[in-house]
Amino acid sequence: MQKNKSSFFLGFLLILFLNLNLITSINSNYGEEIEKDGYTLSRNKIDRSIKLETVFRDSILVENSLPKDITVTFYVENDLLDFIEFENVSLLIPSMGSESAYFLIKGKELGVYTGNIGLRGDIEEKISVNLSIVETDLNPLLLMNIDLLRKSFVLGKPIKFKLNLNKLNREEVNNVSLYYSLVDENNNTYLLGNELINVSNSIQEIKIFDLPLEAQKGDYILKTTLLYDDETIIDTSPFVLKVAFMNILLFGFFPMWVLILIVSFFLLSLILFILIKRHIESKKKYKMKLDLDTIPKKEDGFLYLGHIAEKKTLAYLDPNKLTTHSIVAGATGGGKSISAQVIIEEALMNNIAV
């Protein structure tokens, strides 16, 4: 009986020791809660060791004990910007409620990195970060990267890119989840699509997705997330989303295509005018240039001679300048006789002897 009591007591101590170790291990990663008047944060530090070229998803829980909603924004200090990325940088936490801020820790480069994650807004706090990225002899089953076919795309047209998925061993990798999304300048995320596949061989495939209707012009990041087993692989590629040239709005309201249509109409009209004018000039019999400002203008007693040939200008002649002998000169076939006849008729009609 005494022996059974001793065994039970030793077993109880062993369980207590293991639980204390578990609590110590958890505390080593999370630290203590930050409890202040009006709010509680689930941890005061982040202490993680992750494998190179892997991604770990972590979180911070914020509890609001105030009688009003609060807003909190998370930011990462410069030394950790390349390694920590928040899925949502801002949280709206309802009164007497709680929300979790999820973030990714990326094993980009070997080393030990320290710094802080900060909170601003209705809560002003800092959470210390100690991040170790270590090598591992466990080879990944898959490697992934994406290649954009262009550096810029046009609103309203599909986005195209090449997915490169390399399988590094012989065994088939099942239940591989792929998520394709866009991230804009304001960290808004638009899901393009997702798929669940089994990978038996390396894959190179062109992917085509329609852009979301709410997408606007600007700088974007194409983000592809691959999940299998307990591994997460993320690859990103930046690009620019532009408005189609014909849809550009001048002064914010005038479409470019309307301007081009108007300019094209005037250019076409000008070209037609020049061609027609050249054609008319080529058909004219009389090629000489006249200074119309020097010919006599209409006055009382002047002889009316009609229109100048191939012109709409009226011709007049001062009869006082007619002498006893007058000569009508011009080239053969130029209308000398007709011109003389007109002058004589006008002179006779004005009682001038000819």
How would you describe what is shown here?
This protein has 3 helices and 22 strands. With 354 residues, the chain is of the alpha+beta class. It has 5 domains: 1-30; 32-134, Immunoglobulin-like (Sandwich); 142-243, Immunoglobulin-like; 254-283; 292-349, no CATH class. The strands form 6 sheets. The protein has a 5-stranded antiparallel beta sheet, with no helix packed on it. The protein is elongated and about 130 Å long. Mean pLDDT is 80; it is low at 1-5 and 10-28.
The main sheet orders its strands as 1-2-4-8-6
- What's the gyration radius in Å? 45 Å
Helix/strand/pairing category:
alpha+beta
Which band does the percent of strand residues land in?
Answer: 35-45%
Give the terminus-to-terminus CA distance: 167 Å
Inertia-based shape: elongated
Q: What number of structural domains do the residues give?
A: 5
Strand elements, count: 22
Could you tell me the CATH topology label of the largest domain: Immunoglobulin-like
CATH class of the largest domain, named: Mainly Beta
Q: What's the CATH architecture of the largest domain?
A: Sandwich
Order of helices and strands: HEEEEEEEEEEEEEEEEEEEEHEEH
